[in-house]
Amino acid sequence: MRLETLAQRKPVGGKRAGLSSLKLNRVEVRQPTLIRQEFSLQDFETLISDGHKTKRERYRVLDSIGWDFKNFQTQYLTHHFHSYPARFIPQIPKTFIRLFTKEGDTIIDPFCGCGTTIVEAFLNGRDSIGNDFNPLACLITRAKTRLISDKELDLLDKNISEIKRYVDSDHRRREYLKKLPKRNISNLFNRDMINEICLIKEGLDELKDKEALYELGLVALSATIWSVIEAENEIDIFANFYKKINSMMSIAGELGKVVEKPPQVIVIPGDARDLQIDSKISPLIVTSPPYVNALDYYRVHMYNMLWLGLDYENFRKHEIGGHSHFIANRFRLLTEYLADMLRAMMEMNRVLKRGGVCVIAVGNSSLEYELIESYKFFLAFAKYVNFKPVKAIFRNIDTTRKYSSRDIGKIDDEYIVVLEKERDLRGISAKDDGFVEEVVTKLVREFEQRVKEKPGSSLRGKRVSKERLEKNAERIAQAIKFIPQDIRIKE
């Protein structure tokens, strides 16, 4: 099989004042300049409104967006339900949903996380399918995209009142004092806090036959547990839960006024490398996949899933890009991650219609003091899986915003990679290990050469010995030898 290079591609899209354009292998990369200081909500709404007749015009609109969305409200309606590390802001999916789809279309997010893309599809009258291996992510996404009647909310309110009486009675049980994982975070939860969490969960279990109400309550409890972890301090569990569930009930009531005719939402607890979604059904994918070596979502969400009764061990086994993989040689984590992303992109090709737009928001990260420019790998993959690179858009991340996380605090910018499906894949699939091995090996060898020529591309002011950096090329060479083994999907 001959692997062609991305350099044979022609760029798509034009220039505009206020942006400098950097060519990466003939793909247009948009870098912001200081010409445009203000970008208002009115500017945004005007730009993404209907009226752009051709796809070329819509692509050009992307050059006029102020992608930092400085001073924009990013937590509105159900986006406010639950904190989630590394989530992207809703204005990103909203832009592409409004520009490249119409009401009734189906939007897909194969790494839906807490449901940002799915919520925006819901608010804009588009059907949607969200997929994520994290059971907590699926729970949050479902809760964010349901309309709940006033009658149902009254029933939930009565249940919460019963839980309050139960907690106030100080009804303790020895079995509630279950053993927590041997981690420092466990010390944040004292006996009273554990008792109240378990009492709230027991009270919510009375609503199991009312799925929408039950899951709304579980999300409120999960958000309460997360508040303890974020604050790194003891809190009043029930007071926090009570405040959270009442806020969510109020938002749920408001959502019913905004969305009069709810579109279809499907949330799949599945693997992005093997999507359980029909082929060629969507004109648009908007997603933000995990960043390599950034954080372990299963460790971040372990306590939430523990008390909610979710299976975090299965999620841990199949997590993509997790920080805890391949501790002895971090570059084996990179090859595993690239293989997983390539398989996911092959699946994205399969579920998109021809000419469909694929939008991937991803940040750069670091391995052993070497910069991992993730967006360049996605652009390089495009050629091999029949996507045409349109542009890569640089944006700064405001790390003080709620949607970011201290766990990935070193990631303060990201790229939005815009691709267009040219044609279906023929003769290969995401399960084709030979193809995946060949592509990943080629790209990692190119990365190895860059490291040999200029080691230490991500020192961030740290002093690291020359000998230490020179060993990275040896580690990469070793990782390449393990590629046939490491790229295989774990059963």
H-E order: EEHHHEHEHHHHHEEHHHHEEEHEEHHH
- Tell me, rounded to a whole number, the average pLDDT: 87
Largest sheet: 9 strands, mixed
* Name of the CATH homologous superfamily of the largest domain: Vaccinia Virus protein VP39
Beta fraction: 5-15%
The order of strands across the largest sheet is 1-2-10-11-7-6-3-4-5
Task: Measure the end-to-end span.
Answer: 28 Å
Morphology call: globular
Uncertain runs: 1-23, 402-409
Instruction: Please report the first level of CATH classification, the CATH class of the largest domain.
Output: Alpha Beta
- Evaluate the radius of gyration: 23 Å
Helical fraction? 40-55%
Tally the structural domains. Answer: 2
Second CATH tier, the architecture of the largest domain: 3-Layer(aba) Sandwich
Query: Count of DSSP helices?
Result: 17
Features:
single chain, 491 residues, alpha/beta, Rossmann fold, 2 domains, nine-stranded mixed β-sheet, 17 helices, 11 strands, 14% strand, disordered N terminus
List the helices and strands and how they pair.
Layout: E1 19-24, E2 27-32, H1 41-47, H2 55-61, H3 91-100, E3 106-109, H4 116-123, E4 127-131, H5 135-144, H6 150-168, H7 191-204, H8 211-231, H9 237-258, E5 265-268, E6 282-287, H10 297-300, H11 302-308, H12 312-318, H13 330-351, E7 352-362, E8 365-367, E9 370-372, H14 374-384, E10 387-396, E11 413-421, H15 433-453, H16 466-481, H17 483-486
Parallel strand pairs: 2-10, 3-4, 3-6, 4-5, 6-7
Antiparallel strand pairs: 1-2, 7-11, 8-9, 10-11
Helix pairs in contact: 3-4, 5-8, 6-7, 6-9, 7-8, 8-9, 8-11, 13-14, 13-15, 13-16, 15-16
